Amino acid sequence: MPSTFGIVDLFAGPGGLGEGFASLVEDGHAPFRIGISVEKEASAHRTLTLRAFLREYRSRHGALPRQFIDFHAGDAPEPDWSEVDDDAWRVAIEEARALELGTETAADAIDAAIDRLKARYDDTILIGGPPCQAYSLVGRARSKGKVGYVPEEDERHYLFREYIRVLDKLRPAAFVMENVKGMLSSTVESRLVFEMLMEDLSSFGKGHGHKYELRAIRVEGGQASLQEAARPSDFIVRAEDFGVPQRRHRVIIVGIRSDLAGKAASVDIAVSSPSRTVDDVIGTMPSLRSGISRAPDSAAEWRKKVVDAARLLARIHAGKDNHSLREAFSSVARRMATEAPRSRTETRLYETYGNSNDELLNWLERSELRAIAQHETRGHMASDLGRYLFASVFGAVHGHSPKAADFPLALTPDHRNWHSGVFNDRFRVQLAQKTSTTITSHISKDGHYFIHPDPMQCRSLTVREAARLQTFPDDYLFMGNRTQQYVQVGNAVPPYLARQIAIFLRSVLI
User: Fold this and answer.
1) From CA 476, how far away is CA 467, in angstroms rounded?
2) Is 189 exposed, middle or buried (0-12, 13-18, 19+ CB in 10 A)?
3) Which are the contacts of 343, defined by CB distance < 8 A and separation ≥ 6?
4) Fewer beta carbons within 10 Å, N or C terminal of the chain?
5) Which residues contact 245 (CB under 8 A, 6 or more apart)?
6) What's residue 140's pLDDT?
7) What does the alpha-carbon distance between residue 311 and residue 251 come to, in Å, rounded to a whole number?
8) From the CB of residue 4, how many other CB atoms can be counted at a distance below 10 Å?
């Protein structure tokens, strides 16, 4: 019988890392089973619990429940999942726990789960990573502006020690720790946080058991391998190297227990095709329009605003050498004036849905579904519509997103520092034929960094489009309001990347 590993998932968010491990099934056997996943934020915990329920339900019945498909399609309210399958729901609520790590309550619950896992499975795996905010460059910059902020007293700097405590209790076959690049330069009391972390991980086990061999994931020639790191930056994993359509660079440390580490250096796996683009995963999705915020909104009014902006931009560029930009703006104005109005939401599946031979689309598209969920646009201020239009047309013509200096004066926002460099990338279009920039939780605040590449849509990305760029399958529903959904998507580990890491560990450990 093949080995089965119980998973402890800390700081789980909506479950991207866990999804990658739990989704792996080979010859009818799932080598990784999530025993407990911990997330304190309420909406992310709801997402995590629903996913745990669906995973358990499918394992029992071989398909998604009809009630979920109706709920996913927007044809029915959320049911009481315990009435759909009480046994599967009990498993889900035991697995997905709303706990604040570092508290006694959380420690007791995790320790009890560890005891169950050790009794149930051949061995265990620890996955997850401390929250990003205290480590990230942006987070530290914002924290400096808080009155009385003392880095040494920020508990988020020390939450990785709870990860170490669980590691000590669990003694897993392997662990995977993920975090933002900013942690490589973050300091506390003049010491690098990363140095402190590596000391803890490297010395763990001395005198009372097996140590852990720390490895970095390296990709060369389409093959991934585990290697010793010569410098901290070796631990940076580039998601695009694994076929994720996003330039997401994160620190990932893999630890292999010393009694199992002998095989690690000799194993490599073929990674998914790199250089996947924005258009690969959202180009077939239904076209939408944005809304207009802080003003009356209708399809006709939105179209008028965009047509007026396109005509203005065409006139602005009429006396310039850039014929391509002028023609592109004129084309948008002509097409927009004659095409049928677009909706702000669309759930219908496109014609080719579920029939692709493409590996990534096969991962994203789920044939059981009747609809696309969470594909609904936000409203944007009327003054921003022209900037979104300019950015998308400029990107299509020049192959890169415009900087502040590229914007015509007529579109210059009322910011005193607009030309200082501070706002150089304030409006960023995601280019259709390239991988996207990093999807972050900032997408919840506005869409300025996440402009759709199609000028005819003139909007920011929807939750579902952002989720696809993060490689969440279409049957992955994010609970909570739209702002909370965006935050969950932005904070997650791409499941498609996590699945390939899981394949890697299975090859090393089994």
Assistant:
1) 9
2) exposed
3) 288, 289, 299
4) N
5) 276, 277, 278, 280, 281, 360, 435, 436, 469, 471
6) 47
7) 46
8) 15
C-alpha angle 477/481/485, rounded to 5°?
Answer: 50
pTM exceeds 0.90, yes or no: yes
CB 173 within 8 A of CB 249: no
Q: Which two tokens stand for residue 253?
A: 């440390």
Q: Which CATH architecture has domain 5-277+492-509?
A: 3-Layer(aba) Sandwich (3.40)
Low-confidence stretches of the chain (pLDDT < 70) are 1, 131-158, 205-208, 320-321, 416-423
H-type alpha helices, 96-212: 104-120, 137-144, 160-170, 193-203
The segment(s) of the chain belonging to CATH 3.40.50.150 are: 5-277+492-509
pLDDT tens digits, one per residue of 477-490: 999 999 999 999 99
- Cβ pair 245, 281 in contact under 8 A: yes
pLDDT, residue 264, reads 84
Contacts of 134 (CB under 8 A, 6+ apart): 140, 143, 151, 154, 156, 157, 186
